[in-house]
Amino acid sequence: MPVTDLDTTLVERVRGGDKSAFEDLMLRYEDKVYRLAIGMMKNREDALDAVQDAFLNVYRKIDTFRGESAFSTWLYKIALNSVYMKLRSRSRHEQTESLDDLEHILDPARVRIQMPIRGWSERADDRLLRKELAQVLREAVAALPEEYRIIFTLREVEELSNQEVADILGLSLAATKTRLHRARLFLRQSLSRYLQGNVA
Amino acid sequence: MSHPHRPGEPTCRQVFELLSEFVDGELAQPEHESLSRHLEACPPCEEFLKTFQVARALCRESLLQKMPDELKDRLRCFLRDQIKKI
Q: Which domains does chain B have, with CATH numbers?
């Protein structure tokens, strides 16, 4: 059964009072919602709070889901709202860097394109290095401003389309693509800096 | 980073700016083809594309974590408790 059909069937069952169908929906989406929350909140307990809120709101509001968008789009919107509410209520809505600073770094028009060191892409295949690189990239993703991090997570980790990401965030498709491209360039640059700094 | 390019073909800078749309398959066919031709003829851009893709793949690999089982158990307990009250 296609993903959306299965979601629709489960939603109908939940509306009919079938609590096991809600558990099935949770099973399908809990990892995704958790990744979204932990990516934004960086703390397991805060992320759990946001995930709990998100699923409770999904349950409470399930009758308002009209099927005009995919269930996943609707759920992600609720989850993001829960994440932002938690961030604001705890006054931890910090920018790791000011957006202006990062706009400067991420603006392709200002970036001096550097010739990659030969073998850079091959070095990243080194198994021993991969763990280190994963950590470098996790830190780099965490350094992205929220507006970029959320797009990057939805697009690259959850593999949603640019249009789905734009719909969830209420952004234009062009703005979504621009931010995604800047985030990708920034992360590539972070990896490049690390590898170039480790060249023997 | 630049190499001589034919008139009407993208420069290295343009390739750099269109790379996401290129890898996402969102360029129109003629644009996609001209970028492909540039990449075949320009080793620095070709290597840049490789590293761009490596960074994307490594990011996905490093961020694709599951919710820990202990948190899943707590999530279920919380929701069962809350749903009873609705």
A: 12-85 (1.10.10)
Assess contact for A154 and A32: CB atoms under 8 A. no
> How close, in Å, is residue B25 to chain A by CA atoms?
11
Of A51, A67, A89, the residue at which a domain comes to its end is: A89
Question: What are A44-61's pLDDT values in tens digits?
Answer: 999 999 999 999 999 999
CATH number of the domain residue A122 falls in: 1.10.10.10
Same domain for A189 and A111? yes
**pLDDT tens-digit profile of A115-161?**
555 556 777 777 778 888 888 999 999 999 988 999 999 999 999 99
Interface residue of A34, A132, A135 to substitute, partner B, most B CBs within 10 Å: A34
pLDDT at B9 > cutoff 50: yes
Q: What is the pLDDT of residue A113?
A: 57
Does A81 fall in a domain?
Answer: yes
Task: Look up residue A38 and give its amino acid.
Answer: I
Give B-chain residues touching A34 at CB under 8 angstroms.
Answer: 66-67, 71
pTM over 0.90: no
Residues A44 and A105 in one domain: no
Hey, are the CB atoms on B59 and A157 less than 8 Å from each other? yes
Split into its structural domains, chain A has a count of: 2
- Same domain for A37 and A67, yes or no, is yes
DSSP labels for chain B? Answer: ------TTSPPHHHHHHHHHHHHTT-S-HHHHHHHHHHHHH-HHHHHHHHHHHHHHHHHHHHH-PPPPHHHHHHHHHHHHHHHHH-
Residue of chain A nearest B72, judged by CA positions: A30
ipTM for the complex shown: 0.90
Do A43 and A113 lie in one domain? The reply is no
